[in-house]
Amino acid sequence: MHNDDVPLPAFDIGGRRWVKDEAGFAEAITDVFEQRKRPRCPCVRGEDGKGIKMYVARIMDGYIVKRMPNTGSQHDINCVSYEPSLGPTRSGTDRVSAHASSTATAQTVRKGLKSWRTSGG
After folding, report:
1. What is the pTM for the complete model shown?
2. CA 20 to 30 Å from 40, out of 25, 68, 76, 88?
3. What is the rounded CA–CA span in Å between residue 111 and residue 121?
4. Up-side HSE of residue 12: CA atoms within 13 Å toward CB?
């Protein structure tokens, strides 16, 4: 069930804007997966005038649109794909927490990462 306070994810696929619960969305992301193309998240436009690249992953007998690794902080702060950067790693790149499908899981992941960072791990 959808919470009206949280916007449904939207994706630009094949020149069309799709909303996650829209009829035909499952077929659209199946086609993207099979054609090895990238849907775009329209929350922020890049220099190319397009949204942030996403990818489609196969999950059991279906598909899901996910953000590309290390792009969570590039999304608009109000976007469901937004994830703040956790700061630089020893290699100098930004560390971004694991993508989580629910708020409870995301909070658990963040708490675990915070504990790890504060314990010197």
Report:
1. 0.64
2. 88
3. 14
4. 12
